[in-house]
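User: hey, got a sec? need AraC family transcriptional regulator folded
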Amino acid sequence: MFYDDIRLEKEWNFVNKLGTLTEHAMHVHDALEVSILLENDAKYRVIDRDYYGKPGDVFVFRPFEPHYNLAQTRDKPVKWIMLLFSPSIVRLIPEGSKLLQPFYTAAGRFSPLIPASSPYAELIHRAARLAVDEEERKLPGWQAKQYLAFIDILVSIYRHYLEQMDAASTPEQKPAEGMIRVIEFVLSHFAEDIDTEQLIHMANMRKTMFFKQFKELTSLSPNEFISRLRLQAALYYLDHTDKSITEIAFECGFRSLSYFNKQFKMFRGIAPREHRARLK
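Assistant: Yep! Here you go:
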């Protein structure tokens, strides 16, 4: 497995992709990813599980989640549209943090596959094709049109997510409303001081149940979840701004430069200063 150091030129990016049947290691990256399968069958591996995609399917990948995809047949290359975006983009969208929930829900709770039979997959395909076409033609206002298509995709994924959560077979499997409020709150306020006791009170749960359900829903502890969001924001600022590393650390919610450096190096294998130096 390797870290794919993706640098987005803007906060969202649509790319036509072509892949063949060549074995390769799984990769992780900090961008949020949607794969819109266009032609031929593909094999997707997410962590330790395989999914077999057909044209019309859509796959949603969590940030920092190991995955890959490749063609199932050697003489039939797979074609797809890859959408990559930074979570920071949703700050411009009303209630945008809600639209991120599918990307931070554990794979065991929300399948990365949106099948072609779903009306939401059809809507996502239509919007993705429009976005790519707008970028290729570059008519006046194309970026605005592409941005609207991007929002349509996020809304379709979110509505599919809500239906899947609501369709859980038993009430016990459905995430509690209080826990959903907690996730939305953290997505919106991760750069601020967040008291775990405040989150427990917001969820209206006993402490043991809160930690159990949080882990089941996100696959992370609250502190790990918050740290991951802060690291994503820090990576974006390192790549796209001239802010100092100290400014970035504090703006992203780290209360100590040394702690930020330690967390960043644990996650990326290099220090923030080294990461930024590689951009030059």
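Quick note: The chain is about 45% helix and 20% strand. Let me know if you need anything else on AraC family transcriptional regulator.
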